[in-house]
Specification:
Elements lengths: L8 H11 L7 E4 L9 H16 L3 E6 L9 H14 L6 E3 L4 H13 L3 E4 L3 H6 L18 H12 L9 E4 L14 E5 L13 E3 L1 H12 L3 E5 L6 H11 L5 E5 L2 E3 L6 H9 L14 H7 L3 H11 L6 E3 L1 H15 L1 E3 L1 E2 L2 E6 L8 E4 L12 E4 L2 E5 L19 E4 L4 E9 L5 E8 L17 E2 L2 E2 L4 E8 L24 E8 L12 E3 L3 E5 L9 E6 L4 H5 L1
Parallel strand pairs: 1-2, 2-3, 8-9, 10-11, 12-25, 14-20, 18-21, 23-27
Antiparallel strand pairs: 4-5, 5-6, 6-7, 13-24, 14-17, 15-16, 17-22, 18-19, 19-20, 23-24, 25-26, 26-27
This protein binds adenosine-5'-triphosphate and magnesium ion.
């Protein structure tokens, strides 16, 4: 019998709403601002919103929260759509907050007509000075008691472009003494003479987040508007606007945002990394963006699984990136093809193997999949990893060292006879003899080698550029450290090596995922061309998380 996971608090709310008849179906929304690429934190919100509506037979809208003309761009709109679909979700409708500008303007006029909003001529500094503090009430603006007709005329003039940026704002008239700072006559509209990526120059006043978000939810009849904890103090304003306007009562619920260690997760900071060229674009495989993870070789299933495992919390926490790595290993272990690749090569010469002879050996199948069998050409000269040889073997060293036996994966047992070194002390060649009776699968040698190493035939190997990644930051929480977060960038986060790959990898496609035996999981990078393979290491095989568990 499968174990039922207990409900998270949002599922409990929704089930109660359905049970009480408050809702017969649910509608959620994912509301990104198109001012950057989506990151792994967004995928938490995506999985939650789309997951809830799928579970309860509802729908999810994609709504671009595009109320800030200066930072937004259609490039971001396109990338956001692509990332959501890649994650495996499909929205019911796609909307833009800017679709509602006329309606939102109408709502603002309604508030003015009800005596619940006023035009304030104060400067931002004056407004701030009268705002009070969390422990002291604010003071009324000298413009707070303007008449309704005057406010309507001024607001019309604001829209008509008669004032400069910052000259006037529209504010809600609520309570300058409210213990909630967000309720002290919040700004609803500001003047910004800026070109908008969708509405062009039609508007020079733009609604603030708090005036656009809840009303957009209401216009779409969103039943459960799920956002992150920092919006808790905004909730009374969200409800105030809906109540005063008498529109569809969408309700806001908050959960803890996903924070991951050794990275940063705000679009503003990620944009700095891109603009200042600390990384190779938004989809750099070291970035926590969805496009970066995709380029690195993460699968949609691994990300969804990660979001599921971390669950829905009501308190902020920092998740170990090891859990994300655990999830992709778990997926790739079952699905990836196996191959041999030597990342740090040294020559191995089999002195008793006939020069020019080539044997076509067969790889062992893994996972148990006959279609995954490869032909492995074998000859007198091979490449093996430098690190698989030790001049003076340490205790419990089961790989190559003078006199020692080792099995070459899917091939023969070899014994090390001697080696060459250059003037700098680097091992440049290793000489072995092989045991002809020890062929994998038909071994009659009676010998056992304690270690098995991978190899590729020097005459047949293909050369490739292989990119090995480490964490982008050297500290767990760069955003919370003193000074510029960029000063904590790990200078060794990218290592590029020239590797030798088994020839079957010449046919790799972008969709393929490989385990390079003993070296980790790899995929083809977008920079690869038919004559120039480039591979990214998605993740190593080392599983720190599994051990900690
Ligand atoms: P950032 O700080 O990265 O710019 P944001 O919250 O401003 O993020 P939006 O585009 O406004 O980005 O976010 C769209 C949705 O994704 C919002 O509902 C937001 O709450 C959610 N979201 C953003 N970051 C996270 C996160 N780290 N964890 C969970 N949800 C997130
Ligand atoms: Mg935002």
């Amino acid at each position: 019998m499968s174990e039922e996971k207990s409900l998270n608090f949002l599922e409990e709310i929704i089930e109660a709403d359905i049970a009480s008849g408050k809702h017969t179906s649910i509608l959620t929304r994912f509301p990104p601002e198109p001012n950057g690429y989506l990151h792994i934190g967004h995928s938490k919100s995506i999985c939650l919103n789309f997951g809830l509506s799928a579970r309860y037979g509802g729908k999810t809208n994609l709504r671009f929260d595009d109320t800030n003309p200066v930072t937004e761009d259609t490039e971001y709109v396109e990338s956001i759509k692509e990332d959501i679909q890649w994650l495996g979700f499909q929205w019911a409708d796609v909307f833009y907050a800017s679709d509602y500008f006329e309606q939102l303007y109408g709502f603002a006029v309604q508030l003015i007509e009800k005596g619940l909003a006023y035009v304030d001529d104060s400067s931002p500094e004056q407004i701030a000075a009268l705002k009070g503090t969390p422990t002291e009430p604010g003071k009324d603006s000298p413009f707070r008691n303007r008449g309704i007709e005057e406010n309507l005329a001024l607001f019309t003039a604001m829209r008509a472009g008669q004032y400069k940026d910052g000259e006037k704002v529209l504010r809600a008239k609520i309570d300058m003494a409210s213990p909630n700072m967000h309720m002290r006559d919040p700004i609803l509209y500001r003047i910004k003479h800026a070109h908008h990526h969708r509405t062009g120059d039609a508007w020079c006043i733009y609604p603030m987040y708090d005036f656009a978000h809840g009303q957009s939810d209401s216009i779409e009849k969103i039943t459960h508007s799920i956002c992150t904890l920092e919006f808790i103090p905004h909730r009374p304003l969200y409800e105030w606007c809906i109540d005063q306007l008498g529109i569809y009562p969408s309700r806001q619920y908050e959960f803890a945002r996903l924070n991951l260690n050794y990275t940063v997760m705000s679009k503003r900071k990620l944009l700095q990394l891109v603009n200042e060229k600390h990384v190779d674009g938004w989809d750099d495989p070291r970035m926590p963006t969805i496009s970066g993870l995709r380029r690195r070789g993460y699968t949609p299933a691994s990300i969804r699984n990660f979001c599921d495992r971390i669950g829905v919390a009501k308190r902020d926490n920092l998740i170990d990136v090891g859990l994300l790595e655990f999830c992709i290993r778990e997926d790739l272990n079952l699905t990836s093809k196996r191959a041999m690749a030597v990342l740090d090569p040294v020559k191995l010469i089999i002195t008793n193997y006939e020069a020019g002879k080539v044997e076509e050996l067969t790889s062992e199948n893994y996972p148990d999949n006959a279609a995954d069998t490869r032909v492995l050409p074998f000859g007198r000269e091979l490449w093996i990893e430098q690190e698989d040889f030790m001049e003076v073997p340490a205790k419990k060293w089961f790989r190559l060292a003078p006199g020692m036996l080792v099995r070459l994966k899917s091939a023969y047992i070899v014994q090390c006879e001697s080696f060459d070194k250059d003037d700098a002390g680097n091992v440049t060649a290793i000489y072995c003899t092989y045991i002809p009776e020890s062929k994998s699968g038909q071994d009659s040698s009676g010998l056992t080698a304690k270690g098995t190493i991978h190899w590729v035939s020097a005459a047949h190997a293909i050369q490739a550029e292989v990119r090995l990644y480490e964490r982008l930051f050297g500290v767990e929480n760069p955003a919370s450290e003193e000074g510029d977060f960029k000063s904590y960038i790990n200078p060794d986060s990218l290592k590029v090596v020239t590797a030798y790959l088994e020839p079957s990898l010449a046919n790799a496609t972008a969709a393929d995922r490989f385990q390079f035996i003993r070296k980790g999981y790899f995929c083809l990078d977008k920079m690869a061309t038919p004559g120039y393979p480039v591979f990214n290491r998605t993740v190593t095989l080392k599983d720190a998380w599994g051990k900690i568990k």
